[in-house]
Amino acid sequence: MSHPLYIAFIWHQHQPLYKSPGSGDSLSPSQQYRLPWVRLHGTKDYLDLVLLLERYPKLHQTVNLVPSLILQLEDYIAGTAFDPYLTASLTPDEQLTQQQREFIIQHFFDANHHTLIDPHPRYAELYQQRQEKGQAWCLANWELPDYGDLLAWHNLAWIDPLFWDDPEIAAWLKQGRNFTLSDRQRIYSKQREILSRIIPQHRKMQEAGQLEVTTTPYTHPILPLLADTNSGRVAVPNMTLPEQRFQWAEDIPRHLRKAWNFYKDRFGQIPRGLWPSEQSVSPAVLPYIINQGFKWISSDEAVLGWTLKHFFHRDGAGNVEQPELLYRPYRLQTAEGELSIVFRDHRLSDLIGFTYSAMPAKQAAADLVGHLQAIAKMQRDSQSEQPWLVTIALDGENCWEFYPQDGKPFLEALYQSLSDEPRLKLVTVSEFLEEFPATATIPGEQLHSGSWVDGNFTTWIGDRAKNRAWDYLTAARVMLASHPEATEENNPEAWEALYAAEGSDWFWWFGAGHSSNQDAIFDRLFREHLFGIYKALNEPVPPYLKQPVENHQAQTNHSPQGFIHPVIDGKGDEQDWDKAGRIEIGGARGTMHNSSVIQRLWYGVDHLNFYLRLDFKSGAAPGRDLPAELNLLWFYPEKTMVNSPVPLADVPDAAPLNYLFHHLLEVNLLTQSIQFREAGDNHQWQPRFSRAQVALNNCLELAVPWADLQVPPDYPLRLILVLADEGRFCNYLPENALIPIEVP
Question: What is the mean pLDDT of residues 375-390?
Answer without folding.
Answer: 94
